[in-house]
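MODEL INPUT / OUTPUT PAIR
PAIR INDEX: 1
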Amino acid sequence: MIRKVMMKVLIKIMRKKGYSSYFAPKIIKETINDFKNTKNVNFRRKIWAYKKGFFSSNIVKYGLNDENYRDYMPDFDYYKLHPINGQFGKWIDDKMTLKYILREFNEYLPEYYFYLQKGKITKLIDCPEEYGNEVSSILNLLENKRNLAVKLIAGSLGEGFYKLSYKNKEYMINNEVVSLEYVVTFLSDLNNYTITEYLFSHKDIREIFPETANNLRVMLVNDETQKNPKITGSFIKFGTKKSGMIEHVWAGGIFCKVDLNTGNFSSARTMEDGEFVEVLKHPDTNTFLYGTIPYWSMIEEILLEISNYIPQVRYMGFDIIITDDSFKIIEINSHQGINLMQAFYPLMKCDYNTKFFKRLRNEKSEVIK
């Protein structure tokens, strides 16, 4: 009871300081967790980090010190800026809304087949006419397509993602064989999920690791005071056997810096004991972790076109799967995580970013007053 009362009081204080209802409790919990569980930073350095606006775990990740900390976006400041896109964030936060908002760019989005809500199945825009609104229709489509993606509408960080497969007359969920009865129950119980096209990455990307889609993240900022939108950072993630179906770096995945001028990727890192550690080869395939992002110039061009098409959405983190013949945008994040991005692209070291985020801070300060 005392903890609940204290949490309510703290949330109220954080709300008065300008944090949104979403991030007020989040920053309290994450700060407590950071203080308790960051073992490789002493008490004095933790206090230093908090005063500068960072979680102490980022001292080691970024190599923070008195000389360079201003190059990085502080965690507390970044949380306070939420929601950066205001009411227009709804256009991209919901995957199904995104599909219709970007109808003009449908060739760069996965095909959407069904929407599942508490046992009710609704056909979506790309579902062939011959299929109905029953679980049997999903199974028939699966037998035809062999692989389908099952996604939570508003999920992030891989939350609520499943790979549904049919091979050799067997059904699989996340590559594990299950019975037909299990699949039927699984699909019937899903709420607020979509059934979409399952994407396989480009052959050059698959050579590094073929078991995951290996997601490309691109940060794009559209500051109306600086004339044109700009891509200000990018990295690509690779899964491992340890990380499972999703390329979570915190669970053993790998991420590489993408050069914005050339599309070359290199400088691979993974997470070990709370630190970013450099790796040269993939641990499972023994393949060198460098190369070039296929279709990089086209990706840049289309993302900038999208930004100009919806300029109201001024800050976006695109999640992209590069396929053999093109690329598909699987998600756009309205308030993307910045830990991995800042490992390669410190946000406040970029003039375009600095002007944008400083203006946002001023806007937020005026609202609080």
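PAIR INDEX: 2
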Amino acid sequence: MAALAAAPALGLSPRVELAVRLLLPLAAILLVSLPVLSFRPRYALASAALGAAVFAIWIAPDLLIPGWREHWIFQNALTGKLESSLPLESHSDPLILFMRIARAVIVVPLAEELFWRGWMMRWLIHHDFQSVPLGAYRRDSFWITALLFAAVHGPYWEVGLITGAVYNGWMVRTKSLADLVLAHAVTNGCLAAFVLATKRWEYWL
């Protein structure tokens, strides 16, 4: 995390910086978290459908209500502004786009689900989180996790809150981290396809 935070200040080229953001978290996951990961979802079709539904929820307000995201409640000093993490000159670079999609579809679902649903929901129930089964429900841990998930999505906080609650509920239902990773990967994959098709780069914060 320290390396990722420092990367923008190092003056790296967009390709190198994105490679760092892709490969460092992936290496950490493979070295540390691989033993606790399962890649066999219990409800693959339902999880994929849920991921597609979350994608629809994510883009619906902006498509249905012109100017929705321009309101100060979404863009302000606290939540930030809609600015793509990709420099303008990177939008036509196939390698950068490939790495950005790989990060969104592979690294982000693994890292975020390990953190939010694999750790935080359980840690808020008991600090010896490994003693808490995956998908254990307690109202405060459920909603604190959803609220924090919303907070890290900046100007998209309201759909982030809905998404966090949906993902949390699916974890309670499936008790399966693999199903959450799959759903999250489908959401991000659909969003990546939407960004490339519409050039709405602001969705890639």
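PAIR 2 NOTE: Residues 45-63+89-205 form one domain.
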